Amino acid sequence: MRKHFSTTIFFALTGGLALILFGCARQPIANNTNATAVAEPTPDKPAIEAQLKALEYDWPRIVKERDGTAVRKLEADDILLIYNDGSEGSKDQDIKDIETGDSSSDPQEISDLTVNVIDNNTAVVRSRTAVKGDRVRISNGKCEIVVHEFRSLDTFVRRNGQWQMVASATVPVQTAAPAASPSSTPAESPEANGSPRVRPSPTLKGTPLKAPTPAPKVSPEQ
Question: What are phi and psi of 85, to 5 degrees?
Fold first, then answer.
C-alpha cells in the first residue's frame, strides 16, 4: 500500500508540473456506446400476419398427410403445449400423434384467425378449428357429448429468421344441445332435465248405485 500510494503522489506531482509548463491539454471525450439507443424497426404487420396465417392454415394438410417433418420444423424444441383435455403435451408427442395418423381420418378446417403482432419477432395467433369426425367426446359422469369445435391460442417467435411455435393451448367449444320438439303424444315426451314423466291421475271410481227401494206389499182384501 505504501509503494502504491507513493507512486500515485509522484505521478500527481509530475502531472501538475506538466500542466503548468505546457498548459491544459484537451481531454478526449469518452465514447459512450449506450448514449444513443438504436430504434427497433417498425414491424411489417401485414407480412407477419400473412406468414403466420399460412402456417396455421397448413395444419389440416399436416394432419391428413401425417407430415411429422413439418411439425419438427414448425414447433420449437422447448414448446409448451396444453391439449384440449387439459393434459400437458410435448413436441415428441405431437410428432408421434401426427405420424401414427391418430386424427388423420377426421377432416379439419381452420377459421376465425386473428394475429396479434407484438414486435418483429413475436406474435400470438387465435384460431378456431372445426373437426368433422365424432371421436372427440367429453363426459361429465352423467352424459357424453361430441365436440366438433376448438379454440386455440398459439405463440410464435422468430428464431434465426424462421417462425416457430413456442406455446399452444387448445380448449373445446361446447355448444348447447338443440331443444327437443314437443311431441303430440304426451306419453312419448319425457319431462325436462331428465325428470321422470308425471303419471296420469287415476280415474275416479264411480259411486255405486243404491239398490231400489222394494215396493210395499199389498194386503189382501178382508
Answer: -95, 5
Count of helices and strands (H, E) across the chain: 5, 8
Number of domains in the chain: 1
Q: Is 0.90 topped by the overall pTM?
A: no
| The three grid cell numbers given for residue 59, joined into one nine-digit string | 395444419
Beta carbons within 8 Å of 196's beta carbon, 6+ residues apart: 190
Residues 6+ apart with CB under 8 A from 127: 56, 110, 111, 112, 113, 114, 151, 152, 154
Q: What's the pLDDT tens digit per position in 179-188?
A: 444 444 444 3
Give the whole-angstrom CA distance, residue 131 versus residue 103. 10
CATH number reported for the structural domain that contains residue 124 in this entry: 3.10.450.50
For residue 188, the one-letter residue type is: E
Cα separations in angstroms, 76 against 62, 91, 142, 193: 16, 7, 39, 47
**194: in domain:** no
Count Cβ atoms below 10 Å from residue 42 Cβ, excluding itself.
8
- The whole domain housing 106 covers 45-173
